[in-house]
Design a protein that fits this description.
Elements (H helix, E strand, L loop, with lengths): L2 H43 L2 E4 L4 E4 L4 E10 L2 E5 L7 E3 L5 E4 L2 E2 L4 E5 L2 E5 L6 E9 L3 H7 L17 E8 L4 E7 L5 E4 L2 E8 L5 E7 L12 E3 L14 E2 L7 H4 L4 E2 L1 H15 L13 E2 L22 E2 L1 H4 L21 H4 E2 L20 H7 L18 E10 L2 E7 L5 E5 L4 E3 L2 E4 L16 E2 L1
Parallel strand pairs: 2-9, 3-10, 13-27
Antiparallel strand pairs: 1-2, 3-4, 5-10, 6-7, 6-10, 8-9, 11-12, 12-14, 13-14, 14-15, 15-26, 16-25, 17-18, 19-21, 20-22, 22-23, 23-24
Length: 452
Amino acid sequence: MNKKDKLEFETIKSHKNRLYFLCGFVCVVILLIVLITNHSLAKYRTTESIPLINGTINYTSYDLKMVAMYQEENGDYKSIDTVPTSGYSLNEEKSYCEVNDTKDNNRTIEYQNGVINFLGMPKKGTKCYLYFDEQILAKDIILANSKINEGEPDFSQVATTDEGIYKAEDDWGESYYFRGDVTNNWIKFAGYYWRIIRINGDGSIRLIYNGTGTATTGTSTQISTSAYNSSYYDNAYVGYMYGSTGASSYAATYANTNNSTIKGVLDNWYQTNITNKGYGDKVSKEAGFCNDRKISTVNRSGYGTLGYGTNATVYAPVDRFLNASWSWLSTQNPTLKCSQLSNDMFTVSGSSKGNKALANPVGLITADEVVFAGGKGGTNNSSYYLYTGQNYWTMSPFDFYDGHADVFFVHSNGNLNYSNVYGAIGVRPVINIASNVTIKSGDGTISNPYVI
């Protein structure tokens, strides 16, 4: 090959490289255009989220340009940077979105569990303004609307006037209970009217059933009548739940493996009227119901201290209301503490205390709560809020004697009394509203009850 031929060869090679480079460059440009186009279109197709330190804003377009948020503090709104996760509600009337300074009526804003959702087709330049109101817990509103007394009431007397609220310790802390002919302890919940017994130490609110209306007397104030237990020939039958009958030990008798008759009635009612209707999330899974089966420490003729089988036995609640000779104490001594917390405080599995034996968080009032409310053993009272003119059960054991078990009940004349467990007596469910609920409206009066 001569020099000229070599030069010509090199020239031809150079043209080929240019052609390859040009083709490659064009392909890369086309590829980039395709990728950019797809990426831009994807922005319109994809729902995006703004993660925040507290909460998330979900939105359906990159055109959402601004969100301004304000949180109520002591009646004034202050600018905030993050969505509040609890203790606040979205003020739907005040919150709004706009496009180019014109309110966007097609935009819906939802707020739940610290997440804001903007619904509806957005427009470029959308701006939204969110206002969050303080939520005051139900217990705080109830206390603010009530007269709170210092010290203890006079337990030598029944309460026949509106004495307001007193304080006493329960197993969770300081409890506030209503006493007397109170007029501001009405709540409407799950389609029923209830009376507030007390605010528990954990902040939950203890209610007793009053019915579908506000009549304070008559059978409408109870869901039915029932035996406490249809069998009665063993100490076990004073239990809301119980273990083995004919057992030879206290522990086996009160093992909480069998339901009482009345517990079955209450469970069925709760499932139908609370759980199945979607109200269960408003009921406390922490608070419980005391079925105080501790044996009496007072020596009474004819009774022992075994507490099982057919051995004659008196239970601790009796000591607080009657003396050794079976006379009602002139000054009675109720308590909100459950002496055998791990076995006799009936709670569901989610509670931090108690026996965790319940499938449903429902029970009955205790004899002690009746006395706190203004009733008294041996004295009639038709002028306090627990009076209905009907007999109805508590869940406080009385004794086992002469072949049958006995439990305290509220007599139709308003006093505290006791009956054999197989009698057909009224059933008034007791539940505890969760400590974090808020009140939608109302002042607690019969004409304007609190609404959860």
